[in-house]
Amino acid sequence: MVESKAWDWKNITSETWLKPSEESFYYAEKWRSEGRKRLLDLGCGMGRHAIFFDAHGFTVTAIDLSEYGINSLREWQKKNDTDFRTVVGDMTALPFADNAFDCIYSYHVVSHTDTEGIKRIMSEIRRVLRPGGEIYFDLCSKDAWHFRQCVGDRLDENTIRFVGGPEDGIPHYFADEANVRELLTGFNVNVLRHVQTLATPLYNATGSHWFAEADVAKEDKRPDFSDIIGKAVSGRIDRPKGSAHPRIPDMIYPVNYGYVEGVFAPDGAEQDIYLLGVDEPCETFSGKVIAVWHRYNDVEDKWIVTPDGADLPGDDIVKAIDFQEKYFDGELFR
Predict the structure, then answer these.
(1) 159 and 76 in one domain?
(2) Which positions ≥6 away from 69 have C-beta within 8 Å?
(3) Total domains in the fold of the chain
(4) Would you tell me how many other CB atoms lie within 10 Å of the CB of residue 83?
(5) Is 301:317 a contact under the CB 8 Å cutoff?
(6) 162 and 84 inside one domain
């Protein structure tokens, strides 16, 4: 699989990339009327669609490989006085939980890979979409001038890596209808359109794309934490009550926050916990897990621990951890 490469957004000056695409207006209304709320802007660039869908009431998560693009989006968020999760990450390995999103909007993005890469990307999309979750995306078409003329280095039968220009070194996967339908195995295809444009925003050449709307077909499985809740645990408190977040000085911990020694979470670090029912700062803890806060738009879950395993009302738990969890999209499991 070819290595992913981010767009060089700092050298993109066209205002095209700051304005929502025309299709986004339709999908904002469609998905809102269908009750879809959790949305992933996959390959958000500098954030034009993330900002747009946030303004239309969606719980947005935005991801892009470009750190410059994500930083630009964060500045845009400050100007708009809005806040939603933004992530620098690779679409071939999405850092989100299974079944995290109701819908995914991905515009001129997923083609930036090779044949092996696009298969991984579609597998990841299927994983993070909820059963019945919907994606709208596009793929470069083999009818495009760039593919027919092979402008760049051919990496495999479907892929050309561009040379020179604003997309220098970026691979592009090109598909015909059979390729698109094969990639959408495990989805119900609702819309498949082949669109040709006479000039693209980056090149004065014919551009052709497949646009697809599809719902994922898979079994509905809720997270199961029955093997964790009630478990006796112990560990260290590295962020005691009253201390400041190591990277965000304005965030003061109203509860003790630490980790279970020897138990590792999917992010590779030791499992984080909130210690409730302790009014003083402490260095270590022991107790029982009474609940799990499951983050959808992340790979980390947070265990809720009390010293004696005493239960607490769910609303009290959510209120106690909201100082940090309000920046994520999650749900309490008990």
Answers:
(1) yes
(2) 6, 7, 9, 44, 45, 46, 47
(3) 2
(4) 13
(5) no
(6) yes
Q: Which domain holds residue 277?
A: 232-333
Q: How far apart, in whole angstroms, are the C-alpha atoms of residue 86 and residue 326?
A: 14
Taking the C-alpha atoms of residue 180 and residue 177, their distance in angstroms, rounded to an integer, is: 5
Q: What is the pTM of this model?
A: 0.92
* Structural domain includes residue 224: no
Instruction: Name the domain boundary from 216, 247, 282.
Output: 216
Is pLDDT larger for residue 143 or for residue 128?
A: 128
225 domain-assigned: no
Q: With 90 as the cut, is the pLDDT of residue 16 above it?
A: no
Reported as a single tens digit per residue, the pLDDT across 261-287 is 999 998 899 999 999 999 999 999 999
